[in-house]
Amino acid sequence: MENVTTLGEFIIEKQQDFPGSSGEFSRILSGIRLASKVVSQQINKAGLLTDILGTAGSENIQGEQQQKLDVYANEQFIKALKYREVVCGIASEENDEFIVLNDNGKYVVAMDPLDGSSNIDVNVSVGTIFSIYRRLSPVGTPVTKADFLQKGTEQLAAGYVIYGSSTMLVYTTGSGVNGFTYDPGIGVFVLSHPNMKTTEDGKIYSLNEGNFYKSSKGIQEYVKYAQTIDPKTNRPLTGRYIGSLVADFHRNLIKGGIYIYPATSSSPNGKLRLLYECNPMGFIAEQAGGLASTGKQRVLEVIPTELHQRVPFFVGSKNMVEKAISFVKDE
Ligand code: P6P
Predict the structure, then answer these.
(1) Residue 171 near residue 283 (C-beta atoms within 8 A)
(2) Domain end: 193, 218, 245, which one?
(3) Which atom of ligand 1 has the smallest separation from the CA of 112?
(4) At 171, is the pLDDT very low, low, confident or very high (cuts 50, 70, 90)?
(5) Fewer CB in 10 Å around end: N or C, the chain?
(6) How far is the centre of ligand 1, averaged over its atoms, from the C-alpha of 267 (Å)?
(7) Counting atoms of ligand 1 from 1, which one is nearest the CA of 210?
(8) Is the domain of 140 the same as that of 11?
(9) Mutational pocket test of ligand 1: of 219, 261, 278, the residue with most ligand atoms within 8 Å of the beta carbon
(10) Backbone angles phi, psi at 13, to 5 degrees
(11) Distance from first CA to last CA of the chain, Å, rounded?
(12) Are residues 186 and 220 in the same domain?
């Protein structure tokens, strides 16, 4: 243990990068760290005797069937952040309206507490995605909707937890991306992937090709391009689509690649949500040297109008994103 950095030590070390930081911001990251451990433990024993698999019998605002672990994860992150009293409000995929917490908190959090949860019953990796902003409304007053409708460029921090073969927490505060792997034996996240960078090019494309005939001509042309043998490499791109954004994104971040969820005839603005999926993942991608676009503009420049609004999403290796959006830029 002597030559490793734990997430707790890293947060304290980096806190010194924020002159005058009162440590309140660090408390948010610590809250997320704690909730991630609790959720990870529950996910890793789901399927055993615990009655935590399956649906909760309710629906979220997206009309999606809420899995019990969705609800559990949502509760754990809300509780951990509420307890730390530095967060004035939370926008969550699982809640129609934003949640009012501590009026004296200076920060707001947007989160998808368990993305890809329909994969839990089949033991496929799922994840938590979070985004942290400083509030705009006066401290001491209740949080307002405007506090959440800030451009992605205003994020103070963004990250995800991937509950996979191991549990990892990957986040940025605007000075690069760092990955921490959870060691359940000693209950700490350890710095395992310092200063993560994604390659400018890659060979992997991730999109649901079942939507081919529901997609625009540009996307159909892109898919044909991806499947065409590249004379430079004498091979086409490789299709990899897990159906869990955090898992596809994490693999592409490490190996190089592009994830696309475009507009389709059934989802004219795409499926992914701007505030708690596209903005945080876009911030991480940019900090790792990649790009994140709606196909028309930089994701982080979109001015949000609704908590749960969707945008088409192209994210990953710089040259791959530029190539993909060249197929749709005139649509
Ligand atoms: P589809 C999971 O519901 C999610 O939000 C992402 O994690 C995933 O990439 C996508 O939707 C899968 O959607 O329509 O391809 O099943």
Answers:
(1) no
(2) 193
(3) 5
(4) very high
(5) N
(6) 12
(7) 15
(8) yes
(9) 261
(10) -55, -45
(11) 54
(12) no
